[in-house]
Amino acid sequence: MGALKPLALFSAPTKPSIPPLLRHHSLGYFGEEYMRIGMRRVFQVYLKSKHKVCFPVRNSSASAQPVTENMVEEGALGEAAMSGEEIRRKFLDFYASRGHKVLPSASLVPDDPTVLLTIAGMLQFKPIFLGKEPRRVPRATTSQRCIRTNDIINVGRTARHHTFFEMLGNFSFGDYFKREAIKWAWELTTQEYGLTPERLWVSVFKDDDEAFSIWRDEVGVSVERIKRMGEEDNFWTSGVTGPCGPCSEIYYDFHPERGYLDTDLGDDSRFIEFYNLVFMQYNKKDDGSLEPLKQKNIDTGMGLERMAQILQKVPNNYETDLIFPIIEKASELAMVSYTETDDKTKTYLKVIGDHMRAVVYLISDGVLPSNIGRGYVVRRLIRRVVRTGRLLGIKCGGEGNMQDAFLPVLADTVIDLSTPIDSDVKTRRHRIVEELKREELRFVQTLERGEKLLDQFLADAVSSARSNGSDPCLSGENAFLLYDTYGFPIEITAEVAEERGVSIDMERFDIEMEKQRRQSQAAHNVVKLSIGSESDLSTGIPETKFLGYDDIFSSSTVKGLLVEGKPVMLVSEGNEVDILLDRTPFYAESGGQIGDHGFLYAAGDKENGQKTIVEIKDVQKSPGNLFIHKGTIKEGALQVGTEVDAAVDANLRQRAKVHHTATHLLQSALKSVIGGETSQAGSLVAFDRLRFDFTFHRPLSDTEVMEIERLVNRWIGDATQLQTKVMPLDDAKNAGAIAMFGEKYGEKVRVVEVPGVSMELCGGTHVSNTSEIRGFKIISEQGIASGVRRIEAVAGEAFIDYIAARDNYMKHLCSMLKVKAEDVTERVESLLEELRTVRNEASATREKLAICRASILASKAFIIGASSVRVIVENMDDTDADSLRTAAEYLVGTLQDPAAVVLGSSPCEGKVSLVAAFSPGVVGHGIQAGKFIGGIAKFCGGGGGGKPNFAQAGGRKPENLMGALEKAREQLIASISEKTS
Fold first, then answer.
1. Is position 940 annotated in a ligand binding site?
2. What is the mean pLDDT of residues 330-343?
3. Which residues form a coiled coil (predicted)?
4. Is 697 flagged in the annotation as binding?
5. Residue 16, class by beta-carbon neighbours within 10 Å (0-12 exposed, 13-18 middle, 19+ buried)?
6. Coil, strand, or helix at residue 306?
7. Which contiguous run of DSSP H or E holds residue 648?
8. Residue 430 assigned ligand-binding role
9. Report field, pTM of the whole predicted structure over 0.70
10. Residue 650 to residue 654: CA distance in whole angstroms
């Protein structure tokens, strides 16, 4: 199930030197083991490896990273170690022979909306385990590709941390249970993989006597090697309630000579957990009690990379044949020998090996680089590889072009390592390579500038710290500048800073990020808050209690008033004011939904009896969860402590609810039509429309847009009742709620579900039933950034308004064109064709007229210089630019070579057109039309240029045209005279 725990990198003394070829390959460093097995055995193992790994054979005092502490005993593997492909195949064949259906690896983009990427082998079966879907087969086995990035900083630094890995699993859906799962796991491990039983330890849940008994009495594991462990380590749950059960794990012991006393299975230097068995046998009820499940399930996970490390006798997962060929290729590009380099360089090479597998498989599954969601994961990993490669001196792919990309070369190695289990990777080679090349070259454009700036920032931080006697710290503003302007992920900045001993002001960085998020979130006019210091606002005022999910009216107390950001006690009629209430039905702008509009009412006092009315036009949130009601005093006066009746504009609230629920339906429809790899990149829920930004690499086709509309309107017509719940975040994710990547959530979250269609974590307001939406229409679809597109749509009353307006436009067109609605398109096409014909005729007429006028101008040509260059510089009044060009071409063609023609005109008010045409004889003297006409255009307040023989320019000052042409005449005479003398 992918619950294998990461282990730390061990250290050990160096073994005797052996030839590099045998010291590091897909089998790793045998040390003394190599001497016992013998040369012949080593070469048999090496030659059997699918991917040869060769290094220069030369003597070196540099020692390879040792394996001495974590070594498999001699004879455990038979005559030859297994390749990664053999380990995978043996696992699947073993369970297939026991009635398991071999199913393909699910995509790294999961159907499960609760997770961003596929993180475990059991994920594709989760609906079955939770009872939401019927089982397809009683038992199954898979080799599942997985992505996890929560421990990305440890990649390359430890023996077994990865962003990409494969989880081998066998699953039972109400079929077999503990006895078979335990016995088969033992049989596979000891007989198929050949591990010595005395090297294997087992953990069981402390209260699972049944599993303990099976391991001890039926399998024969000695009680000294069975450890009872607590709930944190050996009990799996799907959430606070729901299916759950105890676990049992198998560990490999690298040091049995240490005996049985005081053993700790968490000791990474001695043990590695490689197989986890989950016995899903209970249902946890609301009161925490456990009741037996009617259908008991088995969910297991074996880490392929971990088993490869054990069977191939290497010190870490990276030096297995699953990853090491990538490291070898990176070493070749960096012109270093992995066997002889230092630990820091090895770490860099491991990072490259790991991340390249991740990005290749992610892109293969349709995840393209972007700044949000899954796309950000890919972009972050790619940029880490690029920067790491540059630290190693890799700047090209080895083809001699220093501007070339090197990621495609590494990607080819990753793709070559793919097997029939993931054959799609090879068929998508071109797309993968091209996307990596495009992303790398895009990043490199800003990387060098950003690196120089970062170096300067870090140097300044260190220098400042020395002067002040403090610890060096990079400001959050500078870190954000690197992120926002130069494309540096904050993780890369943090890594570089750490290398230089500099910390980062992450609190300020987060503030800058949030500021940018707010600024780019909405397209409508946002009233910027200016409320003085946070202490002025929040001192003594508790957070606002929001009542708006259930009510749009409430009684409230005024807790604070601010005018131009300053606290006041009283505000009179006609003034704008920010109002803080103890509780409110008004929704404050968040999650893309704009704030409510409405009114506050207060009864007059006994003395004057004047009523107070405040119009609310926006509601914002401030730190401390205070709702700031921005309004205008329409009548009376308002003071702190006043009791008011708060009333939300019901019509506008309904419009917002309709658009917000429609946004959820739109996201589900998008995933259904264009693929699950797309993800939300931003949204706006307004009263008059909705806007949804999403990641995708191309425009949607008309057919796709129509299908999206059809799906949304079908779901609206289904009249589905929405369900909303507040629950712990983990429970919400386990239940299937979409958690937006990069968003921060509290312990409790609100889940909005349209059963069978969508389930999202959302704090917005929504309709009760989809039928309230009434109708949905996409009004535009366009690209707004690289890999990000935007849909604008209307729903509910806005949909009715949109359709009515379009109907009126159509009626007006029908009346003007005197045709029926169905004939409008044909009639407009006919009119356009007629218009094109008339325009062409008019253009031809203008050109004929221009030529006619030009023929008259030909007589005004004068001769300059020894080469007898014929020159014409004239004003053609209101001749348009195209006709002016035609006239110039006619004249330079009519006059004998050499000839130079400069014409100008003012076709309309505030516009100047200029053109220069020089024959080959003039150009041959070094006089170029493009350079010449650009200088003349400046006199008319414009510019332009072109080729040596022909150029056009424009300007904005017709009053200067005659002066400019006179200047052209003078310069042309001077240039020709000088060049031809």
1. no
2. 93
3. 814-848
4. no
5. exposed
6. helix
7. strand 643-648
8. no
9. no
10. 6
